[in-house]
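Exercise 7.
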Amino acid sequence: MTKGSFQDELEKKATRALLTRAVYRWESAVIIGLTLVLTAFVKPPFPFWEQWFWLALGGLGEIGLVWTSLADPEFRAKAVAEMFREKFQSRSVRDAGLRKQVEKAQEYRDRIDQTINKSREGVLRDHLREVSRGINTWAENVYRLAARLDAYHADRMIQDDMNAVDPAIQEWKKKLALEDDDNVKRQISQTIAQKQIQRDNLLKLKNVMEQAEAQLESTLTAMGTVYSQIMILSARDVASGRAQRLQQDVNDQVQALQDVVTTVDEVYQSGDTVAASDMRHEGSALDAAAQPPAQAAPSATGQAQRKGTGAAKDTQRRGN
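Solution. The predicted structure, written as tokens, is:
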């Protein structure tokens, strides 16, 4: 999902959620209940008073409550934060370390949003709201990347294949050295080639995941830096130029993280690793040995990792 589409979806749902939450506040229930009691059991206090006036008065009270709720920054921030957590539930991540990172990213997102909503109206606040839009996409990609890493860590077959593939290659090479029959030697050579393809793809996957883990940690560090900078900006009410630079830092970091998420998704969707793993059972796939493993994913991810680390350092440098 693109940054714009996700943010638009979040804002539309937030408006509906805010209205719903405002109506279902306990104060709203008190107003409605009191209005019904007054209408049903209380006589008109003035000669000109009509019973339906109680309903009108209750309706005005309800409208006032909803209006003040929508204008309350703390109420809005809390409602949007709950929506975000409902959409990206950290408890779905099984790995405790990754789950903690997702929760940390969501906590940064919530605190940044609360700080911006409590800041004074003006140009600075408008710029900080643009920063907040990037933070939402940031936290979303943290969740998606953590979910991919969680699936990778939980896949015991991949871990078993990584441990078994090198010993298997060495074993087949020993058999090849002792074999005299040309046909058998040809078949063994093809099996070794297939095993090597499997090993290369498994190593590629491992490298991608290690880079993803590093990018995830770098992102959390940068989010903490952005949070401290927003606190400073809000407290000092400084010129908006610094807020614009901060927004660019966030955009750079968001793009770096998006690059990593895209690369990890491509590795999973390509099915290269699964296909290579299955080849050890497919003696008929003799032409597979001639196909070299793709190199695009690791290099793309490496570039994204370097970009993400540079953006994080730049964010910290500007904060200082």
